[in-house]
Design brief:
2 copies of one chain form a homodimer. Chain A is of the alpha/beta class and 181 residues long. In chain A, 35% of the residues lie in helices and 23% in strands. Chain A has helices at 20-32, 45-58, 70-75, 91-103, 119-124, 138-149; strands spanning 7-12, 37-40, 63-66, 80-90, 108-113, 127-130, 164-166, 175-177. In chain A, strands 3-2-1-5-4-6 form a 6-stranded parallel β-sheet. A two-stranded antiparallel sheet of chain A has the order 7-8. In chain A, helix 1 (20-32) packs parallel to helix 2 (45-58) and helix 1 (20-32) packs parallel to helix 6.
């Protein structure tokens, strides 16, 4: 986001059809809440198209990638790998370390699983992080963690090349055509 | 949560099958992040069963309701109605008001739509609130808003009558059988 080091989100274990909406929401949440890039596995071309389409219309910069080897993305990541899991350490105990890493210009990769995540991901991760130790939603965990990592700065992010821009209103909807700007 | 005024989440516009997982994630996120109750529409019995099952196993108190008239829940709510929508006012501008209401012991109802939300919901809501003006996920919006409303206190919530309890670990998984306690 802006001139900060790269923050990327990798979605592991996507099952076509069944996971399409959840995977799409992971991608859109990554984009809206300050990440620079989302990486999907080989069978997630449909969610990738949706997130690209939103980026085309509502602005960027934001990159969407589909990879044949998600594991290689983790293995080769030059920076911090943070795996979000209900079995990990409380986010409130770890968020200071994550912010410090970002301040030191260390790129951060968040790994978000669908169903069961292979054990070597737990071992490779620099941090296994839990947003509560309760079962809920990988989308919720990602959202809370990004909001805490960026300390709310992501909410003021500005978007480039947006065809349309929503203008906040207390009641109703206001959308401006910004395609000519 | 604990001795605070009631915080409930109402899921509007659920479509059976198509929305089951998203609606389930709304319910589980509400539970994990400090709400006291989730209310689903008439066709969401399957997500309701899943959230009840998780509450049975991982603890409460947390109530799951299915109603024939979600609109009546909004109309009759004795407290603040907060509709989460990308068209609303920025959460960072409104969160102080919400925290103040909770401090004044005002119950808060969050309304979370699936697809298009009827206009009268915008009008009835005391606040229409946006977690960014970007399209992303109602689960992410709910998570960030609850985390900000409770100022992180929800992460330390204690659970009663849990059959199993996850113990945070830096690597791997540890689950304790707490059914005998």
């Amino acid at each position: 986001m802006n001139d900060e080091p790269e923050v990327a989100v990798l979605r592991l274990g996507h099952r076509p059809g069944r996971d399409d909406r959840m995977t799409t929401h992971v991608g859109l949440t990554a984009r809206a809440l300050g990440a620079d890039r989302v990486v999907f596995g080989p069978e997630a071309s449909s969610p990738a198209d949706t997130v690209r389409d939103i980026t085309d219309r509502f602005g960027g910069p934001f990159d969407v990638e589909v990879t044949d080897s998600p594991k290689a993305v983790i293995r080769d990541w030059d920076g911090l790998v943070v795996h979000l899991t209900m079995y990990g350490l409380p986010v409130q105990d770890v968020e200071g370390d994550l912010r410090e890493a970002l301040d030191d210009r260390t790129p951060v990769l968040f790994v978000v699983g669908a169903e069961k995540v292979p054990f070597d991901v737990y071992e490779r991760a620099d941090y296994n992080v839990a947003v509560t130790s309760q079962p809920h939603s990988e989308v919720a965990s990602l959202a809370v963690t990004l909001d805490r990592l960026f300390d709310g700065r992501e909410l003021d992010r500005e978007w480039e090349d947006a065809d349309r821009t929503v203008v906040p209103k207390d009641t109703g909807k206001k959308v401006e055509d910004t395609s000519g700007e």
